[in-house]
Amino acid sequence: MSTPKPPQRRQTSFEEAIAVKPLDGSTAIFTANVAWDWCGEYGAWGGYIAALICQAARTYLAVTNPSYKNSQPDPINSHFQLFLPNKPGPVRLTASLLKSGARISVVKIELQKPIRPKGPSQGRITYKTCALGIINMSNISLEAGLTLMTAPSVPKEEIPDRETECEQWTLKNDPVMEELYLKSPVNDKFLSWEVKGQRDGVLDGFGPSVMRTWICRPGMQEFDIFSIVALCDWTPAAPSNFSPKHADLKAGMLYATMSMTTEIKKVPKGAKWLYMRARVNVIKNGRFDLEIHIVDENRELVALCKHAAVVLEGPLAGRPDDIRKLYKL
C-alpha cells in the first residue's frame, strides 16, 4: 500500500500576496500577510517586501485623499531599508506623508512585525520595524516635460537573443541547486531564460561580474508596476557567480541586502517579457553592490535598481582559507 502524499499548500498569487487593508478606524495603519510561498529559506524575499510597501503607499494616498488614487498611483522612485527578515504571517504597515505635491508626493512606510509577550502574562503586543520605505509617488501616464535623446544604458548588441542564445533555467539544467531550491518556494514566482552556460562559467566575455537574463511571469501574465518593483530584486547574489557549482551556498554562505533603491522609468503596456542585466562593481571586505537595468522587448529602459549588500559567513566565520577555496581564490 503506497504512502499518501501530503496535501499541497495553496499558492498565493502576487496580487493576493501584496494586498493590504486599513486597520479599523485608521487611515495610516494597514494590515497584510506575508505569504509563505513568497519567502526563501530565511524569510520573505526582499523584492516582494518592496512591492508590498509600495502597495501600502498607494493605498494610503487613496484612503487619505481619494483624488490621489487617480493622480499619483505610481511608485516612480523608492528607497528601501531592510533591517530584519520577515517570516510568513501577519504584519502591519504604518504610513505618513512626508511631502504633498501636485506632481510628486513622498510617503514613508514602516513594515512591522508583532512581538507577542512570552509566558503566562497577558502583556500588550508590541511591534518591531523590519523594513522601511521612502516612496516617491507620481503618475507615469501624465508625465510631461523636457525630453532629450541619451545613449542607451544597455546597448542593443549586448542583449542576447532569447530564442537562440538563452535557455530556461530549471533544476534539470542546474541539479546542484535542487536542495537549496526546494527550501525557497519563492523561486517559482518568475521564470528565467539565461544565457546558455552562464552559471557554468561560460560567460561569453562578460565575466562573472555580469548576469544577463530574460524573465517572464508564470502563465505569461503581464507585468505591472508592482511586479516590476519586485523584479528589481530577482537575481542571484553576485558573489555566487564566482563560486563554481554553488559551493558557497552549499557551505552556508549568505548574502543579505541592506538596502535597495528603485527607479521606474515606464510600465510597458502588455509586456510579458523583460530583460535584466545585473552587474556587480566591487566585492570587498564582506560588502558588495549590485546595479540592475531592466529593458523591454523594444530595448527601452523600464527600471533601474541599486543594491547594497553584505556577506554573512555563517558556519565559516573566522575561517578565511576555507572561504577562499569556495571561490577558487
TrEMBL record:
<dbReference type="InterPro" id="IPR052389">
    <property type="entry name" value="Sec_Metab_Biosynth-Assoc"/>
</dbReference>
<protein>
    <recommendedName>
        <fullName>Thioesterase family protein</fullName>
    </recommendedName>
</protein>
<dbReference type="InterPro" id="IPR029069">
    <property type="entry name" value="HotDog_dom_sf"/>
</dbReference>
<feature type="domain" description="Acyl-CoA thioesterase-like N-terminal HotDog">
    <location>
        <begin position="36"/>
        <end position="130"/>
    </location>
</feature>
<feature type="domain" description="Acyl-CoA thioesterase-like C-terminal">
    <location>
        <begin position="207"/>
        <end position="311"/>
    </location>
</feature>
<dbReference type="InterPro" id="IPR049449">
    <property type="entry name" value="TesB_ACOT8-like_N"/>
</dbReference>
<dbReference type="Pfam" id="PF20789">
    <property type="entry name" value="4HBT_3C"/>
</dbReference>
<dbReference type="InterPro" id="IPR042171">
    <property type="entry name" value="Acyl-CoA_hotdog"/>
</dbReference>
<dbReference type="InterPro" id="IPR049450">
    <property type="entry name" value="ACOT8-like_C"/>
</dbReference>
<dbReference type="Pfam" id="PF13622">
    <property type="entry name" value="4HBT_3"/>
</dbReference>
